[in-house]
Amino acid sequence: MNVVEEVQQKLDKKINKFFKKNEQRYYIDIDAKEIVPSAKIMFRDIECRFAIATGTHTPQGFEILYHFSHDKTGKIFSLRVALDKNAPEIESITSIITGAEWIEREMWEMLGINFKNHPNLKRLLLAPDFPEGVYPLRQKPRE
Amino acid sequence: MKLTLKALTKSIWVFHAACSPCNNCDIEILDLLTPRYDVERFGIVLASSIRHADALLVTGFPNYKTAKKIKYLYEQMPKPGVVIAIGTCACGGNFFRDSYSFVKPLDEIIPVNAYIPGCPPKPEAMIMGVVKLIKALKAKNK
Amino acid sequence: MGEFQVEDKKKQTIIPIGPYHPLQEEAEYFKLYVEGEKVTKLDIELGYQHRGIEKLCETRHFDQVVFLVERICGICSCSHPFAHVNAVEDLCGVDVPIRAKYIRCIIAELERLHSHLLWLGLAGHFLGYNTVWMWAWKYREPVLDICEFITGNRNHYAMFKIGGVRQDIDNNDIPQINKMCDDLIPALDMFKGAVMDDPVIHARTKGVGILTKQEAIDYCVVGPTARASGVDIDVRRDDPCAAYPLVDWKVIVTPNGDVFDKVVVRVLEMYESVKIIKGCLEGLKKEPKGEIDAKVKSFPPGEGIGHYEAPRGEVFHYVLSDGANRPARYKVRAPSYMNIPSNQVACTRGTISDAAITLAAVDPCYCCTERSAVLDEKTNKKIFGWEDLLRLSQEKTERIKKRIPLNPPFVPTEPTSVKGEY
Questions:
Q1: Is pLDDT above 80 for C28?
Q2: pLDDT at position C109, please?
Q3: Which end of chain B is more exposed for a tag (fewer CB within 10 A), N or C?
Q4: Which residue of B has its CA nearest to C47?
C-alpha cells in the first residue's frame, strides 16, 4: 500500500475533497474542527514531517494550509481548512507538533487568526509598538 | 585641523550595525577582515562596542524594531564620528520601500556621511568608499 | 539590551544576547536564564530583520519575485530562487531544459560550498580558533571568484528564471571551474583533519548541545541539524529536482546530534558538493550547446509548492495564483525558522560557555560577534552580552588546551598545492 492510499484510508471520513495536483503534490480539504486528530494521524501514524502552515485571506474568508512532507517519497500533503470570515478561530496543533508553535504565533499576528489552547500566543515578528488591529497580510477590501 | 578630526582619519575603528539587511553586505564587510582584503593593514578594526568606534557601518533599512535602536546607537557613538550606509537598502530602501515594515530612510533618522550603493557592494567598493570619505574629511578641515 | 538581572527569589540570572546580533538569517534576541553556570531556559525574540517580503511578493510579477526572494538571505541567495522557480514550475507544470538543470545545480552547490566554509570559519572563531576562521574564509574566496566568473556577481547571482536560467556556462570555461574544485580538495582535507584529529575540538564539541532524534522530529528541524541527529532527510534526494538524480552523490547522516556531528556533516557535505559540481560539469560537456530557457509565458490559476535543500535545510515556498501575473499569496519558510526553536532544548542542557557554540551550531548565517551591541539605557547595570559569552567560550577552549596534551601532536599545515595563490 503506498502512502497516498494510506492517507486516504486513515483520514477516511474526515476528507471533504481530495485533489491530486500531480504525483508529488496533494491537497486535502477537511473541516476545521477535525484538524487536531488529522494532524495527529499525519504526524504520528504516517510519519510525515510538518513543513509549515500557510494562512491566506481569501474573498470567502480565511483558510489555512498545513503542509506535511512525507520524506520517504518526497510527496507533500496539504491539509486545507476554511475558517470563518469575521472571527477566524481554530484549535492549536502545538500540543502534537512542537514545531508548529512559531508559525501559529505568526499567523495570529499577521492575519488575526485566533489559536485556541496555544501555550504562548504573543507577537513573534512585529514590533511591540506596531499598531494593534492592523494585520499586514490581510487583503484590503476592493473598492 | 583639529586633533580629534586628524585622529579620526587615521586607523578608523568601525562598528557594524545591521538593521534588517539580508546579511549579504554584512558578510562582505567581514570578508574585508579576512586574508584576501585584510583591511587591518590600514588599522581598520571591527570594534566590539560602539563606544570605542569612530565609524558606524549601517546595512539594511530601518524597520519598526531597529529604527529606534539605530538612533540610540548613534547617540552612543563618540563624536566626531562618521556614519557609512552600506548597500542599496541602507542608501535608499531598495525595493523594500513599499513594505509595511519600512519606517523611514536611514538618513532621515541619523546623519549619513557616505553612501556605498550596490547589492551587495564589492569589498573593493567599500574600501574605495572609506578612502573617499577620508579624503573628503581631510579636505574639509584644512 | 545588555542587562544582567538577578531574580532573587529563584536565584535565576538572565543573560541577554542581542538584539543586535542576528545569529541566523533572522535576527533574534536570546535571553538565557541561568542558574550558576547551567542554562535553564532560553527565550527567543525575533523580528529585528522583518521586512515583509511575503506581502511585497504580492505586488510583483512572478519574474520579479525571483529577485525579491533572492534578497531574503545573502548566503542562501540561490536556494530561495531555486525553491521559487520550483514552486512556479509546479504551478505551471513545465519542464526545464537539461542544460539549465545542470547549471542550476552547479550554482546551488557552489553556494553550499561557500556557505559551509563560512560556517566552519565562524565555528572555529567561536571556539577560539581564529586561524580556522581566517583559513576557511581564505578558501571561500576562490569559490566566490567562480561564482563571479559564471554569474557576474559574488553573492546575489540572479541566475534563476522561471523555466530555466538567465546565463549559459560556456563549455570552454568548464576546465577552470574544475580546477577550482580540485584546488579545494586539499583545503577540505586539511579542515577534515583539523576537526577529526584535534582532541581539543573533540572535548569542546562532543556531547555538547545534543538534540536527540525524537526531539529533532518533534521540532521538525531540517537540513544538517536534522541529519546530524540521525534523521535521514534531504530534499535533493527525496523530491528530486534539477540535475540531482542525474549525478552520483550521497546524503551524510550521523547519529549523535551533538555539535561535533554537525561539524562532521557539514565538512563531509562539502566533498559531496564538489562531487555534484564535477558530475554536472561532465554532464554539461556532453550536452550540445542549446536551449537554457523553457520560455514560460502564462501563469494559470492554482497552487504550487516548491522546496529545495539550502545549505541550512529545506526552504519551502508556496505560491497561490489567481490567474493574474502576480501571486495572490506567497509563503516563504526559511530553514532556520524550524531550526532555531530547537535551541530551546539543545541549549538548556549545557553551561553558558557552551551556549555560544550550541546556538551557532544550528547555523550562524554569520558572525554575530561584531553585530551585537549593548543598547540598554540602564548603563549602570553590569553588562554581559554576546562578547562575554564568546570570551567565556574561547577561554574554555584555552583551559582544555592546557589540560589535554596534543597526543599525537597534530599540527595543521596548509596544503602545498594551493599555497601562495592569494
A1: no
A2: 92
A3: C
A4: B65
